[in-house]
Amino acid sequence: MTPFEVPSKDVQRSWRADLFTHLDGLALCGVVPVLAEGGVLDEVLSAGGDVDDLAALFGANSGYLNVGLRMLCSQGILQAHRGDDKVNYMPRLSADTGDWVAQKDLYTHGRAWMEHAVGMWNDPETPLFQEAQDALANLKDAVVSLQGHETKWSRRARTHLEGALVAPWLVALGTIHGTEPLTHWDDVDAAVGQLHPSKQKAWREVVAALGWDRSLRGGFFLRRASAYGVTTSYTQTFLWAKELLLGEGNHLWRTEPGEAEIHVDRTLNVWGSGGAHKAYFTHLDNVLKEVFNKPLDQQPRGLCDMGCGNGALLLHLQDVIASETLRGQHLDMHPLMLVGADFNQEALVATADHFMQKGVEGHFIWGDIGDPDQLAIDLYKKHDIRLSELMSVRSFLDHNRVYNEPILERPDPPKSTGAYAFRGKRLRLRNVEQSLKEHLMKWSPYVAEHGLLVIELHTVAPEDAEQLQGKLPATAYDATHGFSDQYILEIPVYDAMAEEAGLRSDDAAGRNFPSHGAATVSLRYFRA
Fold first, then answer.
1. Rounded to an integer, what distance in angstroms lies between the CA atom of residue 523 and that of residue 500?
2. Cα 206 to the chain's mean position, in Å?
3. What are the residues whose beta carbons fall under 8 Å from the beta carbon of 51, sequence distance 6 or more?
């Protein structure tokens, strides 16, 4: 077998920056053509304007228009002057963006390919029809046409387009291979062999154009195929940018209760997030071991994982407790209560099956992260377990709650720079902050004794995102979450709202990722 060669650390750093820019590009290829076609982009690049006035002028939904224009601020193309009620967008006067503006129409080729490529990872054996082949060829030619252009913005545009070009292929090959990363060219050959012959031919043409075939660079990105999973799982949402920006604000929410969500390919999302989340679980483990190595009479009865998914995190934590803590030595006299709660009934079934396969006992219950009182009542009635006697754990969930208007008017000016919407309506920043505070206050009584151990996703200020190009996929994060009514706030804002809600963070347990500068992921151990 022929393993991928490992590039030097400096080369890896450079190519990792390209990977993050690929993810931003996938989102931008969905959105930029819509902003351009509707005339909004030319208006903002020439004259600027207040987002609500622009929405009225072009018949747009101000909430999602705000998300789209903030994406361009994070790229350093626009700048925003914001207050609580007003956001005014202007071209970034200090930025030499002329090269990017000259290339902006090429993003239509990225969008055209995405329209044909969406979902191809679920149907590897179906043919790539002629129209799709033409769209792929046009995008490939656009990428090649920018090779050799060494200005900052031409390189960035080329890498954006390359992201739209390769992301569907990488996740298709990665998911065919399974949950482990591709590590050998033989792995790639085996995965390609399961594609329809028309797709095999098209893939060979792509790697030839990019110089990826059996190359150091090709191996680097193929090994990291799962890093493309989460952003690519939102491809359909990016393609619905026209409907979201200029059509019905509730376009993603047309489903009936009980129907599958349409804004994300959840299977691909879970596949992509698995590897990324493992990096944070080591730090979760350390906090957990500290808690369950305390004297037995000071320990929680067990764990409640709100948003349990398929139960993988809960089972992992159970294994850590059983094998590496004092509690694990006394499970016969002090059994560990494991509660998996989820809004999705299919997730509860998956968790129950996973527990059965592992031979582990658990309690599974429907729950809404926005209503811990009802969860506590149901848990006691159905399972004779008090929520307050458990340690609450969850990962990447609080931002994905249904938005509730705050009960109280927040007197302080907002600190966030985010762009937030609910069904197309632009939300006031202070209301989003207050809504998070009131959400966390609901949980405060139930985590007072044994705490809330939580991993959360965050945005960063566009000015920071622009400075950190290639170090964070901030534009992609803001697109995936902003267009699907999810509320990722900056870490300092999140921490401030938690403190106001009466939650105390254990400083020794807290972590930010990355550890220095603006970060997009946090780990916190809160107690009231």
1. 18
2. 27
3. 62, 65, 66, 69, 87, 88, 89, 426
- The structure tokens listed for 468 are 């950190």
Residue type, 58: F
Residue range 390-435, pLDDT digits in tens: 999 999 999 999 999 999 999 999 999 999 999 999 999 999 999 9
Picking from 375, 277, 368, 372, the residue whose alpha carbon sits closest to that of residue 317 is 277
Q: Apex CA 269: angle with CA 350 and CA 118, to 5°?
A: 125
Instruction: Kindly report whether the peptide bond that precedes residue 197 is cis, defined as omega within 30 degrees of 0.
Output: no
Could you write out the DSSP letters of every residue in 9-57?
Answer: HHHHHHHHHHHHHHHHHHHHHHHHHHHHHTTHHHHHHHT-EEHHHHHHH
Handedness of CA 474, 477, 480, 483 (dihedral sign): negative
Three-state secondary structure along 227-261?
HHHHHHCCHHHHHCHHHHHHCCCCHHHCCCCCCCC
What pLDDT digit, counting tens, does each position of 465-498 carry?
999 999 999 999 999 999 999 999 999 999 999 9
Number of other residues whose CB lies within 10 A of the CB of residue 333: 7
pLDDT above 90 for 110: yes
Please give the distance of CA 64 from its chain centroid, rounded to a whole number.
17
pLDDT at 84: 66
CB 447 within 8 A of CB 466: no
Question: 110-123: b or e for each residue (b if 16 or more CB lie within 10 Å)?
Answer: bbbbbebbbebbee
Q: Where are the beta strands (DSSP E) in 29-151?
A: 49-50, 78-82, 87-91
